[in-house]
């Protein structure tokens, strides 16, 4: 699957700090959802992500809590 999104009016909103934060968030979502990001490009006014969806799976409570811990951090209560 190819995902793309652009900023409004093609504004250049994504500087180096914002792109790094985007990639960190993308990787967290990747782990949480179970999709696999093949490659990506984050530019100053848009991004592309090429990903593969996994087959739907039933998670145990423990597996779900582990994914939530990975997403929010282990210290989050």
Describe the structure.
This protein has one domain (2-72). It is 39% helix and 25% strand. The protein has helices at residues 16-33, 61-72, and strands spanning 2-6, 36-42, 46-52. A three-stranded antiparallel β-sheet has the order 1-3-2, with helices on one face.
Q: What layout of secondary structure does this protein have?
A:
Blueprint: E1 2-6, H1 16-33, E2 36-42, E3 46-52, H2 61-72
Antiparallel strand pairs: 1-3, 2-3
Defining traits:
77 residues, 2 helices, 39% helix, flat
Q: Helices and strands: which structural class?
A: alpha+beta
Beta-strand proportion: 15-25%
Strand order of the largest sheet: 1-3-2
Helix content: 25-40%
The major beta sheet can be summarized as:
3 strands, antiparallel
Strand segment count:
3
How would you state the average pLDDT, rounded?
A: 91
Distance between the termini: 34 Å
Taking pLDDT < 50 over at least 5 consecutive residues as the criterion, the unreliable ranges are: none
* H and E string: EHEEH
As a whole number of angstroms, the C-alpha radius of gyration is 15 Å
Number of domains: 1
The DSSP helix count reads: 2
Shape: flat
């Amino acid at each position: 699957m190819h995902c793309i999104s652009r900023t409004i009016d093609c504004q250049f909103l994504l500087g180096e700090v914002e792109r790094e934060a985007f990639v960190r968030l993308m990787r967290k979502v990747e782990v949480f959802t179970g999709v696999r990001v093949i490659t990506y490009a984050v530019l100053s006014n848009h991004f592309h992500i090429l990903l593969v969806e996994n087959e739907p799976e039933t998670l145990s409570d423990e597996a779900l809590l582990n994914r939530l811990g990975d997403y929010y951090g282990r210290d989050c209560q």
